[in-house]
Amino acid sequence: MRAMVYRGPYKIRVEEKDVPAIEHPNDAIVRVSLAAICGSDLHMYHGAMPDTRVGMTFGHEFIGVVEHVGSSVRNLQPGDRVMVPFNIFCGSCWFCARGLFSNCNNVNPNHYAVGGIYGYSHTTGGYDGGQSQYVRVPFADVGPTKIPDWMSDEDAVLLTDAAPTGYFGAQLGDIVEGDVVVVFGAVPVGLVAARSAWLMGAGRVIVIDHLDYRLKKAREFAQAETYNFTQYGDIVLEMKKQTDFFGADVAIDAVGAEADGALLQHVTAAKLKLQGGGSPVALNWAIDTVRKGGTISVVGAYGPLFTSVKMGDLMNKGLTLHSNQTPVKRQWPRLFEHVRNGHLRPSELVTHRFPLEHIAEGYHVFSAKLDGCIKPLVVPNAT
């Protein structure tokens, strides 16, 4: 089969790999019909994610058609059109029993740090991802779900990560009616978080970014107020002014490890790798922006190592911080309702579609922020 293969920072290829085989009776082999490139993939592409090994195939957002199933699979059969959450989980451990599918204890040798994720380095289990023609799906009776007949492929593929993560980010903010919510990052996750904040009762939603085309999308997709932080000497001070020097009730960090904005923090983290967890710019802005007793939600991806976060300010202000990788399948029932009723249309975020053979171009366009790229899709069998 043809698959994207990592060859080092900024170096990816499309090469021949063996078609994955059934390794366990509860496996399925899925022929990928549509995948996506996520901002989290860029952390590995840029060399910022530990233990990203040469030869790995990325891609934790994908949908497809079941080709083969193991002997113990009961919920799927060949020919089923399925969406696969980015989490790999067993469904039966202590964490899965409590709906914490992203924290499963049985799918990753590094389970004390994180659960299993498709195509996201050996830190998360070393599973190959879906930027390929075929992918092995473990625990096939637990993770994948048949795509409803009424749902489009492009909505479905964004429901495997970007949309649930944005929705989860708003959930973690504990938003109550009338809250002022500030979202850092007009990336797909941030855009969905902003849209979801309205669904949860926010009275005011503000999105902060530095790219005008993304801020335009925030106004169109999320009906949010927008601020380009490069146009202000101190974006935190501006947010204080915009909230009568009280502060926002909720801040959502949708950017994570490679945030721009504060030169010293960005260079020491994202460039020189002196802070292994990534650049804490957005998170520190969130800490400074919310009011005392406010809530911070972190769904942007960070590495597992040291990051210089303002813990003293967080503690002294009495802030509540919620974070996690999204337990995607737990979000699906409500998100399916929102999509079916027209309250949320994730496919509106898609700006580019690349054949698998041109995936290197897709990564370059997305990474370099060219051509107004917000969400690129990968089509494995396109010419």
Give the structure's gist in a few sentences:
The protein has 383 residues and is α/β, with parallel strands linked by helices.
Helix and strand run? EEEHEEEEEEHHEHEHEHEHHEHEHEHE
CATH overall fold name of the largest domain: Quinone Oxidoreductase, Chain A, domain 1
Q: Say how many strands there are.
A: 17
Kindly give the count of domains: 2
Strand content: 15-25%
Low-confidence runs of at least 5 consecutive residues: 261-278
What's the number of helices? 11
Distance between the termini: 15 Å
Specify the CATH homologous superfamily of the largest domain.
Medium-chain alcohol dehydrogenases, catalytic domain
Query: How does the major sheet shape up?
Result: 7 strands, mixed
**Morphology call:** globular
CATH architecture of the largest domain: Alpha-Beta Complex
Quick check: average pLDDT?
Answer: 93
**Fraction of residues in helix:** 25-40%
Protein structure class? alpha/beta
> Can you identify the CATH class of the largest domain?
Alpha Beta
What is the C-alpha radius of gyration, as a whole number of Å? Answer: 20 Å
